[in-house]
Amino acid sequence: MMAPLGAPIQQSMKESLETRAAALAAHAAVLKPEGPGPFPVTLQFHGCGGVKSQQWAYGEAARAAGWAAVIIDSYAHRGIGRARAYATVCTGLSLWGRERAGDVYAALAWARAQGWADPSQLALAGWSHGGWAVLDALAMSAPAARRATRLDVPDDVLAGVASVFLVYPYAGVGCVAALKGWRIRPRGAAIVCARDRVVGRRAPLRVLERLRGDGAPIEIDTYDATHAFDEPEARDVRTRHDPVLTARATARYAELLASSRVLVSGSRATARNPQ
User: Domains in the chain, ordered, with CATH?
Assistant: First the structure.
C-alpha cells in the first residue's frame, strides 16, 4: 500500500462491538483442526487489496499446527470491492490502521465467545495494511481505541492475546504503534522485505525494533523479497511472487503458533501501563 495522503474518512455513527463482530463473522472463513476443541485461535487480517489466496495457505499451516485459523474479511460488510480498495484504502484515503483496529477488537470478542475456542490462547496475524491494523490495535489504550474505532471497546479487549505474526506491515505515517508502542508484550515474529517498494523496509524495522526495545519478544526476519512475495496473484509491478520464501514464511507462522501453544499462559504476554 502507498503512504497515506491525508486524514482518513471515518465512520460517524457509533457501533457496538457485537454488531461489528457479527458483521465480520458473516464473511469470515474458519479452518479448525479435527475434534471438538477448545482450540487456540489465530485471527488473520488481509492486506489493503483484500483477501487473497495466500490467506488459506497460512490458515492451513495454522490448522496443521493445532490452531483454528479465522480469515477475517474487513471489506465485505463495508461493501468495499477490489477496485475501491486499491483506490481508497491502499492510498490511505480511508480506513487507516487505527480505524480498522476495530475489526481486530471485534474479532477477538467473537473468538472468545465460540465454544470451540480457547480464549486464553489467541494470536493476531496481519499482512501489510492488516499488519498496520494489528500494530495499532495493540498500541491504543481503551479510551483511544473507542475514539478511533467508534466502537464500545472494553478495557480488557486484548485479554488472551499471546502471539503476533506480521508480514511486511505498513508502519509509516499515521501508525499509532510508531508513537505509542504496545500496551502488552506478546511473543511475535515479523517478516520485513529488503526490496519492499510499497511499505518500505526502514519504517517497519524502526517500529519493530522500538517494540523489541520496549520488551516485546519479537523475532524479526528480513527476506530478500518484494512486498506481497507470498501472493501468487500479485500483479503490481513492484511485487514478485517467490514460492520458496512463501513456503518459508508459512512454516515460520506454523512454528510461532506451535511453540506459543506450549508456553504457560503467564509467560506469553506481559501487560504494561496503557499510554
Answer: 28-262 (3.40.50.1820)
